[in-house]
Amino acid sequence: MNYRVQQSYFVGCAILMATAAVCSGQSTNRNSGLQRPQFISPEVSADRHITLRVLAPKAEKVTLNGGDIPGAGGAKMTHRTNGVWEVTVGPVEPGAYRYMFNLDDVSVIDPKNPLTSESNANTWSLVPVPGSELMDTRDVPHGAVASVYYYSKVLKKFRRMTIYTPPGYESGKGKYPVFYLLHGASDSDASWSTVGRAGFIFDNLIAAKKAKPMLVVMPNGHTGLFSMGARDREPGKRPKDEFLDEFEKDILPYVESHYRIYTDRKNRAMAGLSMGGGQTLNLGLRNLDKFGYLGVFSSGIFGITGGNRNGVPIEPTGPAWEAERKAALDDAKLKKGLKLFWFGTGKDDFLVTTSRATVDLLKKHGFNVVYNETSGAHTWLVWRSYLQEFAPLLFQ
User: Fold this and answer.
1) What phi, psi does 79 have (nearest 5°)?
2) pTM (2 decimals)?
3) Are 270 and 179 in contact (CB under 8 A)?
4) pLDDT category of residue 265 using cuts at 50, 70 and 90
5) Distance (Å, rounded) from C-alpha 240 to C-alpha 307?
6) Which of 40, 71, 225, 243 is most exposed, with minimal Cβ within 10 Å?
7) What mean pLDDT comes out for the span 299-313?
C-alpha cells in the first residue's frame, strides 16, 4: 500500500470510529469517558414546583441556597446514580427566584441555566415562575431595558445604571415623566430588572392602561463593592453619603440631558426598597421641591428605634435625623406639592418597627403618609407586589 493510499485509509477509519462513538453515546475524548448525562435545570412544573439539578459526581454534599425561595435555604440535594444531584421545592408564588448550589462548601451558579441576576458582589442563577398577569412575559408592546454607562465626577470613575424606556419611546418625540427606582443593600442597578421583573411589570401595567408610560431609572446605590454610600467616618460626625452627592450631581443631570423627560416636580418620582428606601427618604427630604412622589418599601430611618449592640445600648437616630432635616420637615409649602408619600412593609419584616416609627415621625410633622402593612417579610415577593401597587399611583 503506497503512502497516500495508506494515509487516506487511516483517516477514513478514524472518521468512522468517531462517528460510531457519537452514535453509541460515547465520547471520543479519552479523558471524559462516557458521555455526560443529559438533564434539565431549572425545571418548573405546571403547579409551580421548581426542580433544580447539578452534575457533581465527586461531591460529598450538595445543598441549595434558595435566595427568596420559601423554605429552600440550605435544602439538601439528593445524589442520583448518574452523578446528578437534585432537589424539588415549592409550590412557590409566581415571580422570579435567585438560587445557587453549594458543592462541598463552594458556592456555584447553575451551569445549565443561562439566566442570571447580578448583586453587588456576586451573581445568582435566576428562575422565572409564570402565573402572574402583571409579571409574566406577555404578548404586549415591550419597552427597552438598557445598561447605561456614564462618568461620575463625584466618584471619579465610570459607573452603570439600568434604564427602562416605555414602548414607543425610541420611535416617538414626546416627553415622559421619570421614576427613579432604588435597590437594596448588597444588590445592584440590574436587580430590579432581573429578579424584580420591573421591565415586564411596567410593560403589562402600561398595556392594561393601569400606569402612565414613564422612564424608569435604576441607579447603583452602592459606591463600592460593599459600600452603602457612606464616607468620611470621623469620630463625632455623621458620615457624608457619596451616593446622595452622586445622584444630585451626576445621575440627575445625566438623565435629564440624555432623555426626553419632564423635569418639573409633578413629573418626577422616587422609591426604593430597604437601603434604597432609606436613600429615598434622605434624597427626598433634601430635595423635596424636586419630587412629587416618594415611595419607601420595607424601610425607614435606620436606627430610629435604637437597640443594642453586644449588650451596649444604641442611641436612637430619630432625633438627630429630625434635627438635620427640620427645615424641610416643617415647610408647609413643600408639603403641598408632594402628591404621594407611600410606605409599605411586611408584618414579618425585621424592619417593621423602623417603618412604623418613621411614619409616626413624618405624620407628627404634618405629612400625609399612606402606610400599608402587608403580609410577608424582607423579600422580593413583597417588593415586586409593592411596585405593582405603587406605579399606577404615579403621575395621575
Assistant:
1) -90, 115
2) 0.86
3) yes
4) very high
5) 23
6) 225
7) 72
Quickly count: other Cβ atoms within 10 Å of residue 330's Cβ. 11
Q: What are the beta bridge partners of residue 224?
A: none
Confidence at residue 311, expressed as pLDDT on a 0 to 100 scale: 57
By residue count, the chain amounts to 396
Q: Give me the chain's average pLDDT, please.
A: 86
* β-strand pairing of 50-55 with 43-44: antiparallel
Q: Is 234 exposed, middle or buried (0-12, 13-18, 19+ CB in 10 A)?
A: exposed
| pLDDT, tens digit, 9 for 90 and up, residues 124-144 | 999 999 999 999 999 999 999
Cβ(89)–Cβ(80) below 8 Å: no
DSSP strand pairing (95-103 vs 123-129): antiparallel
Q: Quick one: which of 292, 318, 288, 323 has its CA closest to 303? A: 318
By the 8 A CB rule, do 102 and 69 touch?
A: no
| Three-state secondary structure call for residue 333 | helix
Work out the pLDDT band at 315, boundaries 50, 70, 90. low
85: helix, coil or strand?
Answer: strand
Residue 6 DSSP SS3: helix
Interior angle at CA 244, CA 240 and CA 258, nearest 5: 150
Q: Report pLDDT digits (tens) over 161-184.
A: 999 999 999 988 899 999 999 999
**pLDDT tens, position by position, 208-228:** 999 999 999 999 999 876 554
Average pLDDT over residues 18-29: 37
- 316 pLDDT higher than 70: no
Q: What strands, in cross-sheet order, belong to the sheet with 340-346? A: 144-152, 157-165, 215-218, 178-182, 268-273, 293-297, 340-346, 369-374
Place of cell 460510531: 20
Contact in structure between 296 and 272 (CB atoms under 8 Å): yes
Q: Name all contacts of 317-321 with Cβ < 8 Å and 24+ positions apart.
A: 318/357, 318/361, 320/238
Task: Tell me if 378 sits within 8 A of 351, measured CB to CB.
Answer: yes
Task: Tell me how far apart the 2 most distant CA atoms of the chain are, in Å.
Answer: 103
**Is 313 strand, coil or helix?**
strand
Is a pLDDT exceeding 70 seen at residue 302? Answer: yes
User: Could you tell me if residue 288 is left (phi over 0), alpha (psi between -120 and 50 degrees) or otherwise beta?
Assistant: alpha
